[in-house]
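Reviewers of the previous submission asked for a worked example of the structure-prediction workflow described in the proposal, so we include one complete record here. The input consisted solely of the amino acid sequence. No template or homolog information was supplied to the procedure at any stage.
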Amino acid sequence: MLFARVSRFQKGIRPRSLRPLHGFTLVELLVVIAIVATLIGMLLPAVQSAREAARRSACQNNLRQLGLATLNHENAKKHFPPSAIAVTEAGKAPWSGQAAMLPFMEGDNLFRRIDFTKPYNDPVNKDLWPPKGVAAMRIDALVCPSEPNARPVPDTDGLPKHYPLNYGLNTGEYLVYDPATKATGSGGFAPFSKLRAASYADGLSKTLAMAEVKAYTPRCQDVTGLPAAAFASPTEVTAAMTNGWSVDGGHTEWVCGRTLHIGFTTTFTPGTRVPHVAGGTTYDVDISSSREGVDTTSATRAAVTSRSHHGDLVNASFLDGSVRSITSDIDLTVWRGLGSRAGGETVSAP
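From that input alone, the workflow returned the following structure tokens.
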């Protein structure tokens, strides 16, 4: 046996236990890792783009549902819903036009039980959805899938008291409502007004109904001394920002029929940055004078910009129920023309 083993060594045959093991070297392993990381880096933007395309499509479907509900409302009541619906108690917040549409979505019998003559926090309405009532409910059709702040507004005890939304009603260029004269803005919807199809000189297909807005928008409300004419540029807004400042108070109450919460104006084109510095931070803001229904003498003027989480475009619906994407580089005159119901402007819809 010893001779046999020696003979094998002499013949150049090495035992299996002494043969070198073949595997990846450290350099080879690092190269493979680098290749895999590069492939992931190339693939990730495509995956993210596909996901955003799906979310944008779902956002457009939400607007189609709301457009259908608006048309169902008009068909049943022979007028479009007001942007703000007055209640019997003076000084109480009006209901929103979005709330008025809900009974016409999917035949929801529960929403048909709302008493719109009473405030949303009245026991008659609040007890339908205890403990905080309908105001705290999430309405999926009102929330864009790309909204990162889709969360309830808590009260002092941490309980949900309101829920935001992402689809604002077109309430005009700048003037929204003057209670002294009953004058309304030029938008597709107006506070405390029952607009009929004949009210739209431009035609339903060329009049904006709704467009995207961002939840928890920084804003100033009940600002005194706003100019009678619309701001000429976004930089003019910051000089008017006085009382009523909140870093996240806008578009947080889908039930409240005030433009700062449920609307937009065409003062500026979609996605226009309206800068205001507060506490060393620059915010993108909205502004409004006395809100709709606060009193019977003060006019509501507002610069509430349509914004989205879809890059340089917003999804918007028109009063005929169609939905289109509108880019931020749209001409301001065209944007305001699309926002007007009664001007008779001849503009080409994007």
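The chain has seven helices and 17 strands. We consider this example representative of the routine output the project will generate in years two and three.
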